[in-house]
Amino acid sequence: MYRAGRFSSNAETGSVLIVSLVMLLLLSLIALAGMQTTIMQDRMAANMLDKDMAFEAAEAALREAEANLRTSVPFVFSGANGLYLVGASNRPDWPADTSDNGNSVITYSGSFPDVDAQPKYVVEQIDTIVPPGCDLSSYCEPVYYRVTGVGFGGSDTSAAVLTTVFRTK
Question: 20 to 30 Å CA-CA from 84: which of 10, 26, 75, 136?
């Protein structure tokens, strides 16, 4: 018999419990996927910051080398002081191994905070073109130099290698 405001006990099957548990499971899966995406984006942002720090450090090393070449051109390119002739076998091979110091390197004189290692650079004499008005009996500074710098980010796995060709006159 049916009374107002009451349902028959035969109509209650418990399906609301099952539906709500399935919905809770779906919401949990969506939340888990959102957390994984957020964690991945956080890692990507940290790697980009690390890469940018390495690039800026390498560029600072290049600018220092260029400033040094503007003020005084070195006379001896022996490899013993970070100065090499182009193609010298004892120079660092930074594209292959950023920890290679060759015969010697020049360390950046400034300071970069939060980097794994301070940037380094080498200067290579490319050509000794005799400028107009200069004879072979006197020293004429080389006109072109290749400057290669390596900078490091906050971890030992991030490094940037930059190369520029610099003309003194």
Answer: 136
